[in-house]
């Protein structure tokens, strides 16, 4: 009796598995092809240098050179600035806004949400060009506006001055993605039962206390997701900077992915560019793991 | 049984259809042509017509055009195709990539084809094959003649403030810029986001004036006998920095790209536009109404230029060439040769003045041909004491560091000496790499 049950279940399992197999194999093969093949190739090329389109085995030479490459570290520093801005001014501000939207302080919530979300639907390249026009030192609105309200001393060469270029790039970044995190946090907030907050309010907990002792702990999963997107997105940032400054003036606003692009297509060294990309991937993974562990430790 | 018969019949039938169709497809000679000349560039329109006509008269030939924007083609597509050896049958190659491509045996040898048709070979402007000839072998065919640097100026604005033309000396030119600035105009429109305009419009020609031909040739040959930390090159940077420091460019010249800067000239906010010979074609398409008020002059000569280098020189050449990969079948080779000859025929060169482009062949531009601006440009070329070959030998890493360090020097984040030192450091590595390859 037992045997027959087993054989029936095996037959049934086999049939199901065979049916499912093509649906598993095709996406899996596609996934492996688009993700692992380029990754493995980049990893392989990172041990070569290329000059005049000739590949030469370099072993760990690229990574040794990378450790001494001032432009790489400068680019990484810029990535970390972007990460800080993303965490504080995108996710942080979005969290505060989401929290405020649970109170009666904010009216027309759907409208406010749409206003904040609108920049997210614009292509980053378009955003970059819009801000480039605003920043224009020649005819830009920003300097004109500052002059009109008597803040002439704040007028700057926003995209030509190496001292302010990263600030100029980070402002549109924060502006564009607040809405994205706002939507994530609002989705997280809807998962918290209203009764809990109402009971806390009846018990005398104020807004800040409710945020710190109820909302934050209950939204840990959502916050984790938001932070992971922030961190990984900051390391791979490319398009906005490409459109706004091309990493310039000089290397003032260079970031790691743009540096890899520059080395590959302008410097024509696909080997060293691959080493930069592999290093960026390792750094990004390390940061993601660190953030995950940090949040896990807090649980 | 009956059903099986029909099933087998259907499969066999389908196989036959595929076989016949496949044969038909296989019998066709297919050529992929990767380039960046599309509408509204009149040369692209002509090429397209030539391709269509060729396919009509040769039904067994299929030519697929793989057209990308100029920037994308130059910076990404051509580099990737060269690096990965995925070059199509026919493609455009930048002169800067010629040496590497030849070294890697990626280009078909055209020597016999060129020499077997002396009429066609000799129709090109003298020296145009210099960028495509290595040793005594020809690896690509030039299809244009351009020079990099000229100053286009708005005569109406000049007249308004009592100026006549761009002076011959750099010092007088700076005074003209000051007058334009005082009158509320942007003296010169410039967009250096991608770095190359600094080098192509100013530094390259200033090197000819200040450092001289020998220095330029040595730098381009990577012999190690000339260097970028030479005081003469520092002097070049100093001369270029003068208009930057005096505010003679649009304030946003660093983050702006070249087409955006041209916009200031078209909007008549800028009085002068540094640009290459290709601008004659561009303005005729983009802003034909402006043509009547635009004139042109060479880059002024600095007072401390070498005495033997006279005012009015240009750096010119083909810049881009047409090439084939090395895997062509005889049929494909024949099609490619036919097409390249059509694209570079004297008949086509004769049509260039109507496109407002300088012709690549020995074709005269008559007094009624093309626009006045084109004829002025043509006269400058005829009157030039010398047309130096563009310094196309610079490799990617050297160009890249030149662009970046000149930007940094211009915004004052590094000194002239530091910029020269940084450029030289990269250049020395390339000299070393070239020496290794020569061994």
Features:
heterodimer, A: 299 residues, mainly alpha, MetI-like fold, 2 domains, two-stranded antiparallel sheet, B: 439 residues, D-Maltodextrin-Binding Protein, domain 2, 5-stranded mixed sheet, 4-stranded mixed sheet
Describe this structure in words.
The complex is a heterodimer of chains A (299) and B (439). Chain A has 299 residues and is an all-alpha fold. Chain A folds into two domains: 2-45, no CATH class; 69-297, MetI-like (MetI-like fold, Orthogonal Bundle), CATH 1.10.3720. Chain A is 74% helix and 3% strand. Chain A contains 13 helices and two strands; from the N terminus they run αββαααααααααααα. Chain A is globular and about 70 Å long. Helices cover 52% and strands 13% of the residues of chain B. Chain B contains 18 helices and 14 strands. Chain B folds into two domains: 27-142 and 319-359, Periplasmic binding protein-like II (D-Maltodextrin-Binding Protein, domain 2, 3-Layer(aba) Sandwich); 148-316 and 391-438, D-Maltodextrin-Binding Protein, domain 2. Chain B has a five-stranded mixed beta sheet with strand order 2-1-3-13-6. Chain B has a four-stranded mixed beta sheet with strand order 9-10-8-11. A three-stranded mixed beta sheet of chain B has the order 7-12-14, with helices on one face. Chain B has 439 residues and is α/β, with parallel strands linked by helices. At the A-B interface, α12 of A face α3, α4, α17 and α18 of B.
Helix/strand layout:
The complex is a heterodimer of chains A (299) and B (439).
Chain A: H1 2-45, E1 48-51, E2 54-57, H2 61-67, H3 70-101, H4 109-117, H5 124-135, H6 141-148, H7 165-190, H8 194-202, H9 207-218, H10 220-235, H11 239-244, H12 256-266, H13 270-297
Antiparallel strand pairs in A: 1-2
Helix pairs in contact in A: 1-13, 3-7, 3-10, 4-7, 5-7, 7-10, 8-9, 10-13, 12-13
Chain B: H1 2-27, E1 29-35, H2 42-57, E2 61-67, H3 70-84, E3 90-94, H4 95-103, H5 111-115, H6 118-123, E4 133-134, E5 137-138, E6 141-142, E7 146-147, E8 150-154, H7 155-160, H8 170-182, E9 186-188, H9 196-210, H10 212-221, H11 231-245, H12 258-266, E10 270-275, H13 279-286, E11 294-297, E12 314-317, E13 320-324, H14 330-343, H15 346-355, H16 372-383, E14 387-389, H17 396-411, H18 416-438
Parallel strand pairs in B: 1-2, 1-3, 9-10, 12-14
Antiparallel strand pairs in B: 3-13, 4-5, 6-13, 7-12, 8-10, 8-11
């Amino acid at each position: 009796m037992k045997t027959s049950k087993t054989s029936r279940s095996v037959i049934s399992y086999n049939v199901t598995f065979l049916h499912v197999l093509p649906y598993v194999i095709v996406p899996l093969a596609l996934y492996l092809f688009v993700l692992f093949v380029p990754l493995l190739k980049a990893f392989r090329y990172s041990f070569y240098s290329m000059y005049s389109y000739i590949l030469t085995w370099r072993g760990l030479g690229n990574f040794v050179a990378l450790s001494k490459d001032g432009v790489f570290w400068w680019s990484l520093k810029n990535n970390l600035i972007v990460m800080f801005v993303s965490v504080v001014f995108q996710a942080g501000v979005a969290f505060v806004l989401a929290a405020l939207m649970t109170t009666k302080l904010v009216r027309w919530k759907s409208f406010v949400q749409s206003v904040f979300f609108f920049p997210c639907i614009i292509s980053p390249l378009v955003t970059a060009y819009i801000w480039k026009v605003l920043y224009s030192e020649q005819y830009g609105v920003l300097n004109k506006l500052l002059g009109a309200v008597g803040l002439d001393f704040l007028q700057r060469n926003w995209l030509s001055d190496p001292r302010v270029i990263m600030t100029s790039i980070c402002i549109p970044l924060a502006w564009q993605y607040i809405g994205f995190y706002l939507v994530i946090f609002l989705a997280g907030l809807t998962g918290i039962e209203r009764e809990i907050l109402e009971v806390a309010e009846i018990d005398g907990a104020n807004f800040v206390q409710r945020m710190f002792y109820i909302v934050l702990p209950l939204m840990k999963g959502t916050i984790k997701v938001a932070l992971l997107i922030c961190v990984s997105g900051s390391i791979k940032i490319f398009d906005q900077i490409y459109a706004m400054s091309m990493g310039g003036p000089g290397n003032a606003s260079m970031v790691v992915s743009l540096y890899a692009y520059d080395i590959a297509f302008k410097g024509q060294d696909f080997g060293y560019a691959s080493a930069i990309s592999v290093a960026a991937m390792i750094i990004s993974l390390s940061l993601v793991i660190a953030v995950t562990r940090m949040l896990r430790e807090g649980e | 049984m009956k059903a099986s018969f029909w099933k087998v019949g259907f499969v066999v039938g389908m196989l036959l259809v595929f076989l016949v169709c496949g044969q038909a497809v296989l019998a066709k000679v297919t050529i992929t042509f990767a380039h960046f000349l599309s509408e509204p560039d009149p040369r692209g329109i002509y090429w397209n017509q030539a391709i269509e006509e060729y396919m009509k008269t040769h039904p067994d030939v299929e030519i697929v055009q793989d057209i990308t924007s100029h920037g994308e083609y130059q910076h990404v597509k051509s580099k990737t195709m060269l690096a990965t050896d995925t070059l199509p049958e026919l493609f455009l190659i930048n002169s800067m990539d010629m040496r590497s491509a030849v070294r890697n045996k990626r280009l078909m040898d055209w020597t016999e084809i060129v020499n077997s048709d002396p009429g066609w070979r000799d129709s090109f402007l003298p020296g145009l094959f210099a960028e495509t000839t290595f040793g005594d072998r020809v690896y690509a065919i030039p299809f244009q003649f351009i020079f990099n640097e000229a100053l286009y100026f708005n005569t109406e604005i000049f007249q308004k403030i009592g100026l006549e033309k761009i002076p011959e000396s750099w010092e007088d030119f700076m005074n003209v810029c000051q007058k334009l600035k005082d009158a509320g105009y942007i003296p010169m429109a410039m967009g250096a986001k991608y770095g190359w305009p600094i080098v192509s419009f100013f530094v390259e020609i200033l090197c000819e004036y200040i450092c001289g031909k020998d220095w330029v040739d040595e730098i381009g040959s990577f012999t190690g006998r000339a260097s970028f930390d030479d005081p003469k090159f520092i002097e070049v940077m100093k001369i270029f920095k003068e208009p930057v420091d005096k505010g003679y460019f649009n304030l946003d010249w660093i983050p702006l790209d070249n087409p955006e800067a041209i916009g200031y000239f078209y909007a008549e906010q800028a009085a002068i536009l540094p640009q290459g010979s290709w601008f004659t074609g561009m303005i005729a398409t983009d802003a034909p109404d402006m043509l009547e008020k635009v004139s042109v002059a060479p880059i002024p000569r600095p007072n401390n230029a070498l005495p033997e280098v006279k005012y009015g020189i240009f750096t010119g050449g083909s810049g881009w060439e047409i090439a084939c990969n090395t895997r062509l079948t005889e049929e494909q080779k024949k099609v490619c040769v036919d097409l390249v000859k059509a694209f570079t025929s004297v008949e086509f060169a004769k049509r260039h003045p109507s496109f407002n482009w300088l012709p690549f062949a020995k074709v005269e531009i008559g007094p009624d041909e093309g626009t006045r601006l084109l004829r002025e440009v043509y006269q400058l070329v005829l009157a030039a004491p010398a047309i130096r070959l563009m310094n196309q030998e610079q490799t990617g890493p050297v160009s890249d560091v030149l662009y970046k360090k000149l930007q940094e020097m211009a915004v004052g984040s590094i000194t002239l000496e530091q910029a020269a030192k940084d450029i030289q450091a990269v250049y020395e590595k390339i000299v070393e790499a070239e020496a290794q390859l020569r061994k």
